[in-house]
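Appendix B.2, paired examples.
Example (i):
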Amino acid sequence: MIDYTTPGQIAAFIAESIQGVGGTVVFPDGYLKHAYEHARAAGGVCIADEVQTGFGRTGQHFWGFQLQGVIPDIVTLAKGIGNGVPLAAVVTTPQIASVLAKRIHFNTFGGNPVVCAQGKAVLEVIEREKLQANGLKVGNHILAGLERLELKHNLIGDVRGRGLMIGVELVKDRSTKEPAKAECARILELAREMDLLLGKGGLWGQTIRIKPPFCLTLADADFLIEVLDAAFARV
């Protein structure tokens, strides 16, 4: 991409540590390490988008980029840090920050002390209530349940994710991997009728996205698996 679509110099490379709306795609081990090396060799800075993967959602680490063993130059944060209020943040190096300070920067919600207090409280609750550890435990429980469903329902082509960031890709045929877009929409509607709200993603809208609150319990996880099992049985 750098060799054939740029003059050889780039501004930046940005990537979610696990692709969210893209269908909960977990990168192969070492992918970001090599991507960062190529980007930096072309003069670019490396940006980790932790809006969906940050704050312990993967269970194993507090930040998704740690799964890949890399250190980005810039990290973008949002949503999870505010727990419902409009709050986002950018973490970067002193060198990059000093350049930004020389330019005009505008942010509608910038410097709001009320939401900053809430963001601080959220971080304290995550630590005090060990929500990252809970995410790993409950997430692994959900993944195990989904893998059992995969053996039972041919519509499931792949189960993947880390912690409480999970994707279930649906296919019409496991050999051709043809996306089951309509079936995915139907599964979500049936789940809604049984009081389970889920999202979807992927290039063709064929992947069920499971990204629940950190306070999810094992009983909640069992309910999720039971509802999905019933929904798949009807499609």
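Example (ii):
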Amino acid sequence: MSRSPRDVESLATEIASREDVELLHGLIAIESLSGQEGSAVAYLCEAMARRGFRVEPDTAGNAIGSVGSGERRIVLLGHIDTVPGRIPVRIDDGILHGRGAVDAKGPLATFVAAATAVAGRARVTITVVGAVGEETMGSPGATEVAAGPAPDWCVIGEPSGWDALCLGYRGTLSLLYRLEQGSRHTAGPGQAVGERAIGFWNALAAEVGRRNAGVVGEFGSLGISLRAFNTTGDGLSDRAELSIGLRLPPALDVPGLIGSLAELAGDAEVQIEGCQEGYRTAKRSPLTAPFLRAIRRSGGEPRFTLKLGTSDMTVVGPRWGCPIVAYGPGDASLDHTPEERISLDDYGRAINVLSEVLLAL
């Protein structure tokens, strides 16, 4: 049965409290596309202030709140922006549907709820960040945060599943291939501009295949995707443009790869729009043992994952060099899909797990 926002208070369970369900429901109900996060940021800042957080200003537009006064500090870094695509916000049989439920307002609300639960008992200062712009190249919110002092620990808010930890993400490189040449008759000699662009794509795919030869596991491989292909002409010149994305495994020689792209392009232009290198943390990170214990105490069988996409871990991890993992409730296979939804029971379990971790530090 579907419930309206006014019925949310009836959904309190032994796992997720009414206040925490309201927090998540309210956050998801506010559309917050990348670059348009202002209303959601204001909502989250107000919610944190009501819960006793010290809400701090941020020039990037992030929502930032802290609780506790311990000398050691942990940053819980989630993102508040979402990809486009409106999904009616509703609760059916303990499942909350809506854009951002999984990626990544569920994990972000988990951070606020867990920090609230341990406020006054934890020995550390806990800072929650609702970062803007994670779904866009450059992650301006996380980039702003990364410029500050490194914390002692960091947890990235992404959907690992309540009983799992993510240890690493591939990076990303976005490029535009542009080719212009004089117009030609389709029956004339030589290749059309579109054919040459296809030739570049095929050569790049072959280069990726060569680099992936012998690589064990998809996480360690290069990924490639064609995002857009367009040709135009004005009767005097013809133009082709390809938008291409590459997924980068950690420790890849990125300058060498960019050099190979330029060679393959020949006289065409290759414009690099943005690049974030991949990052992987150690399984023996000081953060993993507290999570494993807490997951087991909540009835789960803990596991580790490596993600083929990108997150703000690739932004702050290299800069801070502190113990870091990604954690949050939700099924990552629902990211960016019309079926995005989260189990409120899993949300409650994740709050319990993270609360135990924060008390253990």
